[in-house]
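Hey team,

Filing this mostly as a record. A colleague (T.K.) asked me to run one chain through the structure pipeline before their review meeting, and I want the input and output archived in the tracker in case anyone asks later how it was produced. No errors, nothing strange. Just documentation.

Input sequence:
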Amino acid sequence: MTDIQQHALSFGPVAAQYEAARPSYPAELFDELERLLGRPLKDADVLDVGAGTGIATRLLAARGARVVALEPSPGMAALLRRVSPGIPVVKGVGDELPFHDASLDLVGYAQAFHWTDPAKSIPEALRVLRPGGKLALWWNVKDRATGWIKAQEDRLVVALPNYHAYGGVIAGAEQLTEAGLAVEHVTLHWERQVTVDSHLTDLTSRSYFAVLTEEQRAPVLAAERAALLAEFPDGVLTEPYVLDLFVAGRA
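Output structure:
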């Protein structure tokens, strides 16, 4: 198993942490998505690929989309079904979509496109999209222009040999242009206030922590807790995010 495959398959055991502490998405994301789609999400047939526990799936459904969640991890899919029993969940991956040709208005990837092989996932998305349909990719990334976030990243680079940030977001999205698609890009800024405990729970849901044993994770988390409480002694911090949205369609 490759390192990428190991990381991609690591989420099942941390599904509860993922659901409890991963950031959601601001309403502005879906406003922009509708603008770039050129239509409301209401009554659109939407596929959420790599849906995880359904964080984005539920927000798409709340906009009135007929959304199906596609998720390869049994652990993540089981939690999604439990939390959102009304949303259909299908096992599968973006590189081989189990859907008919020209059956969808939108194929979306929330924090998930980097786990695919774009040489396969892009043609698959185009195959299942109806004329005028779009492929949308988006990522929440903590804003590294903020001092404490950059300092934490520097610590994790040293502490975790398998640490990786979402450095390939823009590079991955460039595959859309290379595939001959017309691509529009929007960047949003937003923030949320969380406790140090919640922030650390979010960290444990990341693949670079999920692949570690408890013995490997514990000292890193203890060091992070100490560093964060030294900077935020009341135990509450504000996480600023940069949210990149790419919407692509046939040129």
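Quick notes for T.K.: Strands lie at 45-49, 66-70, 89-90, 104-110, 129-142, 181-195, 236-250. The first strand starts at residue 45 and ends at 49.
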